[in-house]
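The records we work with from here on pair a chain with its fold. A complete example follows; check for yourself that the lines match position by position.
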Amino acid sequence: MKRGRYNPYLLPPWLRKTRFYCRNIILPLSCFQFIRVIIVPTTLDVVLLLIFILLWYLLFTDII
């Protein structure tokens, strides 16, 4: 099964806006979470950091 090229303009306007804001806020959140993990590493903080990194990757490679 061949995947076509991703076209964000086929999405509804509210979803494009949400994706845009998520792309802009995920990096500062990841940096803040990374600093928290360095200072006081708890299991929840590490898992949250991994989720943020995965979300960042998916957003910036246009998979989501």
Observations:
- The chain has one domain: 11-60.
- The CA atoms of residues 34 and 47 lie 11 Å apart.
- Helices lie at 13-39, 43-60.
- The mean pLDDT is 87.
